[in-house]
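Holo prediction. Input below; ligand is CDI.
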Amino acid sequence: MIRIGQGFDVHQLVKNRKLIIGGVEIPYEKGLLGHSDADVLLHALADAVLGALSKGDIGKWFPDNDPSIKGIDSKEILKSVWKEAKNDGFRIENADMIIIAQRPKMADHIPEMQKVISSILECNLEQVNIKATTTEKLGFTGRGEGIAAQAVVLLSK
Ligand SMILES: Nc1ccn([C@@H]2O[C@H](COP(=O)(O)O)[C@@H](O)[C@H]2O)c(=O)n1
Ligand SMILES: C[C@@]1(CO)OP(=O)(O)OP(=O)(O)OC[C@H]1O
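Structure of the complex:
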């Protein structure tokens, strides 16, 4: 059986927050705002896995009004979601993602993100593809007000 899932997330860029994307801290003058560490890429990916499993979304599993998970490391969210997938007997075929950000440049950080994600999903680096794009200064991402991410995963068993 194969199952496809998609995810999309957006977080606002603000001062005095760390910028964490794909489990990697990226040096930048602003960071993403959220109830968690606001890792927009891991949130999109976790939602894609939950979508493939037909198990809702991360807001259902990790409510943003739960004080016990305030500031949670999103790697823990993805690990927990992946545990669900494994319990249901699934393995990953591939994951493809895109980070939509005018700045900063993601390219140098993508290999480390791939390592983090492939380690959590227990797969090879080649099964995890991460891309980045600007929006040519258009829209909220183009104005640097926020960062968005999309993910697609294919699971099999
Ligand atoms: N935040 C970003 C945005 C883009 N990149 C890389 O630059 C390439 C060109 O971007 P365009 O938006 O002009 O298509 C893109 O393909 C990425 O490789 C990046 O590293 N970080
Ligand atoms: C991750 C959670 C929970 O801490 O909070 P946020 O960091 O605000 O992220 P978001 O993508 O808005 O929604 C999912 C939430 O459940």
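The chain has one domain: 2-156. That is the main takeaway for now.
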